[in-house]
Amino acid sequence: MIKRLLHTRLRVSDLNQAIHFFTDILDLKVTERHESPRGSKLAFLSVPGSQEEIELCEYKASGPVQVQEDLVHLAFEVNQLDTMIVYLKSKGVPITDGPTVSSSGSRFAFIEAPDKYEIELIERAR
What we know:
The chain is of the alpha/beta class. It has 2 helices and 8 strands, in the order E-H-E-E-E-E-H-E-E-E.
């Protein structure tokens, strides 16, 4: 039986650019970095408050990364959505949707990560 989720892989076109975005802008931490036997460059990132990690994979041999709109996204909880949006705008991160209030009273917005991955930021209702 499945015990728990360990990580989710995102294939990226530029590993260093993706690491910069997730660590320097979103404050995740690199826990491991190596090259696989087949030549994939890999980085594992820890997410605050979670046991699950994000695995970034650069593998040029598989062709260009083309993330389709609304195919996949990561969602992170934030304390203050408005403050986070101001911070992200100051770093040049595109806000692609929101902020929006959900039926539960939570607020959310979407930003664009490298390779056009969507990231949802959620401020839970108090």
